[in-house]
Recover the amino acids of this structure.
């Protein structure tokens, strides 16, 4: 069976909430989560606040 | 994460190179290591924790190295004792595992020298192998913690006799944190906290400060409007004054005409008209001269202040010239050519080492190049231009000012002459006197109106300046307002993101709890078939609930928390871990909004899994292959024999078996040199008074 014939997977509630968010916020959230993911296991998450602050400035103009 | 192989080298009692290959087959996902108490089961578990997390991995929640004495002595004691070079004697553990389709090789080592200096400082490296290519990871420890977060390692690699604490009320926070970490929700919580942080949202809010209020802007806009209205009115008023002046001038013209027609006043009136015409022309000329003067000062006035600069410039150039430095007496390009051709223009040879060549080379010290000479020429010229400019400006200023003074003097003369005429006319006929007096009044009126015009022009200038200032301030405020508007938008975006992430976290948690409860119930029922059931409460407390018949006031049944035995708590804790691992594995197959929010496959390694189970040992043994995609059991014969052996053998899920053999002096309680594992009987004790070590052997 090809992938095209598969019915679309039902979204979870969390996915639905995310999908309903405005596109600029989706991009911002994705970017911030990526930044957090890179440092989440460090004891000291140096620069994360500055990085998030910059991300907000970059995505919200 | 699925473990493939672990290689010990001089790690504690595992002297030399020893390896364990784990069963990674999903159908036979269990690896069992058999060993008598004290032979190294716990060291295997600790070796796994050490390679993953270093010395931190050896510590319990209280920071103490439980079950592992002297955690700072990693290198095999006999190797350490015999080492001639402490930098070459080394303990290491290498772990090979698969994770999300890639293979990883993690190696941690510690030399004897480093162990003595600081055993926490280990050497660690992680290599990722993807499609046959190796990639060394820059931050190995960080990557490992990303794969198996700190908060869940105690749920994956643990002592089975100590895990029952999870099913206690005091562990709800650890349970909640483990759920968040294993299911990828901790990232959401951290992100929410960081977005709300003073250095993010707080900083953006600070940018809102200084924003003009609507009142301030309203006042400025009202002022602008008032000034504009006043300006329009004043301009209108000025036009009227000008019209009045023109009307007065017309009336004066008529009177002048009447006076010229008057027989007695005729001559004087004509003379005055002529003088006034002349006066008007000279005034025009004087105004023009004043404009010329202003222009001259604005454009060339600066040259008058360059005297000192020109003097100093001339002095420097004069000195350099006197010293023969400018223009250069000889050009370096010319000297270069001579030296290169090895012949002077006087035909002397300039070969290397000759006195003539040395003389020419010495000339190079004072030689200049063409650019230098050109620059000096330009400087010389500029000084000359400045000097000439100052002289000309001075001369022109004097001439123009003289013109202006001459005009002023002529004006004063003419005004005097004109003034002398009026009394003469009034001495004439009555009509001439009346006309002249009327003329004088009109002239006074005209001067008054001219004064009005001057005042009005002054007010207009002031109003225009004020209006410009207010407009500037409004513009500035609009710019600040635009910045503040952006800051407000950003603060709102951060708050919206927090709200979205909060709702996602809430939805995920709410949706996961019943799923987890289902998993827990499903797993629990496989072990304990009684009239009580486990439940993960809203506050993530892991409880056992049971129904009690007819206990409430109405005689109805009631559901209460059951008091658990250690065995029941151990089973409940195991079931919880198994459920969490199963759910994490399921979640890893569901796409999420960003990588890292999902769960993953995790192995479970348990030291003494059957120690605290009492009557549930057989049921747990039947169930244990299902608790994770990969299970490693470190068991002692007393826990394994009988029901456990039977259950595990019947399950057909054991892929690999090992046992640990001990070489060393006779130990207390060691009754037999042989070990019986089901149908196998192996020698696991080799007596030696020379040495002491443990060997990993496959069964």
């Amino acid at each position: 069976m090809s992938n095209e014939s598969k019915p679309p997977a039902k979204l979870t509630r969390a996915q639905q909430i995310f999908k309903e968010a405005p596109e600029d916020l989706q991009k911002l959230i994705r970017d911030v989560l990526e930044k957090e993911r890179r440092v989440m296991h460090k004891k000291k998450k140096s620069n994360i606040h500055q990085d998030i602050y910059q991300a907000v400035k970059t995505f919200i103009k | 994460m699925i473990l493939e192989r672990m290689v010990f080298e001089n790690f504690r009692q595992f002297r030399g190179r020893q390896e364990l290959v784990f069963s990674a087959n999903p159908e036979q996902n269990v690896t069992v290591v058999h060993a008598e108490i004290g032979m190294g089961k716990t060291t295997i578990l600790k070796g796994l924790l050490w390679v993953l997390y270093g010395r931190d991995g050896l510590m319990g929640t209280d920071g103490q190295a439980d079950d592992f004495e002297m955690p700072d002595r990693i290198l095999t004691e006999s190797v350490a004792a015999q080492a001639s070079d402490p930098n070459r004697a080394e303990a290491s553990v290498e772990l090979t595992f698969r994770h999300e389709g890639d293979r990883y090789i993690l190696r941690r080592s510690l030399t004897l020298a480093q162990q003595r200096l600081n055993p926490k400082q280990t050497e660690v490296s992680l290599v990722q192998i993807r499609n046959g290519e190796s990639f060394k990871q820059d931050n190995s420890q960080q990557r490992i913690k990303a794969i198996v977060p700190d908060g869940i390692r105690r749920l994956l690699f643990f002592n089975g006799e100590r895990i029952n604490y999870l099913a206690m009320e005091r562990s709800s926070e650890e349970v909640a944190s483990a759920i968040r970490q294993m299911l990828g929700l901790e990232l959401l919580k951290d992100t929410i906290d960081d977005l709300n942080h003073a250095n993010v949202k707080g900083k953006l809010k600070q940018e809102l400060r200084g924003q003009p209020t609507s009142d301030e802007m309203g006042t400025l806009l009202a002022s602008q409007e008032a000034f504009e209205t006043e300006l329009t009115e004043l301009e209108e008023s000025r036009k009227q004054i000008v019209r009045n002046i023109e009307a007065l001038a017309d009336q004066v013209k008529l009177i002048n005409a009447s006076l010229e027609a008057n027989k007695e006043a005729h001559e004087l009136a004509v003379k005055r008209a002529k003088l006034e015409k002349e006066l008007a022309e000279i005034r025009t000329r004087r105004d023009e001269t004043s404009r010329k003067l202003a222009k001259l000062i604005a454009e060339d006035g600066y040259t008058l202040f360059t005297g000192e600069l020109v003097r100093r410039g001339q002095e420097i150039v004069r000195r350099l010239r006197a010293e023969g430095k400018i223009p250069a007496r000889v050009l370096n390009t010319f000297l270069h050519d001579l030296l290169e051709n090895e012949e002077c223009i006087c035909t002397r040879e300039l070969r290397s080492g000759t006195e003539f060549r040395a003389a020419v080379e010495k000339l190079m010290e004072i030689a200049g190049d063409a650019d230098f000479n050109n620059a000096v020429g330009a400087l010389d010229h500029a000084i000359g231009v400045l000097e000439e400019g100052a002289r000309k400006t001075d001369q022109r200023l004097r001439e123009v000012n003289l013109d202006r003074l001459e005009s002023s003097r002529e004006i004063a003369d003419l005004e005097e002459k004109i003034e002398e005429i009026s009394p003469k006319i009034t001495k004439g006929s009555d009509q001439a006197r009346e006309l002249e007096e009327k003329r004088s009044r009109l002239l006074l009126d005209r001067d008054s109106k001219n004064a009005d015009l001057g005042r009005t022009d002054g007010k207009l200038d002031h109003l225009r300046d004020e209006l410009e200032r207010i407009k500037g301030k409004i513009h500035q405020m609009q710019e600040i307002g635009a910045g503040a508007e952006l800051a407000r938008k950003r603060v709102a975006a951060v708050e919206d993101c927090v709200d979205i992430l909060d709702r996602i976290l809430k939805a995920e948690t709410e949706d996961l709890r019943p799923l987890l409860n289902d998993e827990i119930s499903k797993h629990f029922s496989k072990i304990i078939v009684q009239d009580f059931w486990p439940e993960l409460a809203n506050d993530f407390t892991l409880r056992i609930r049971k129904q009690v018949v007819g206990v409430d006031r109405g005689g109805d049944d009631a559901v209460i928390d059951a008091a658990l035995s250690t065995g029941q708590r151990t089973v409940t804790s195991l079931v919880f871990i198994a459920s969490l691992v199963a759910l994490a594995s399921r979640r890893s197959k569901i796409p999420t909004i960003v990588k890292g929010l999902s769960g993953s496959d995790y192995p479970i390694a348990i030291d003494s899994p059957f120690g605290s189970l009492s009557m549930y040992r057989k049921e747990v043994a039947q169930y244990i292959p299902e608790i994770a995609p990969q299970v490693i059991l470190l068991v002692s014969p007393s826990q394994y024999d009988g029901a456990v052996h039977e259950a595990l053998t019947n399950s057909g899920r054991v892929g690999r078996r090992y046992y640990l053999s001990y070489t060393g002096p006779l130990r207390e309680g060691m009754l037999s040199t042989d070990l019986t594992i089901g149908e196998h009987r192996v020698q696991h004790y080799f007596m030696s008074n020379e040495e002491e070590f443990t060997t990993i052997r496959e069964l």
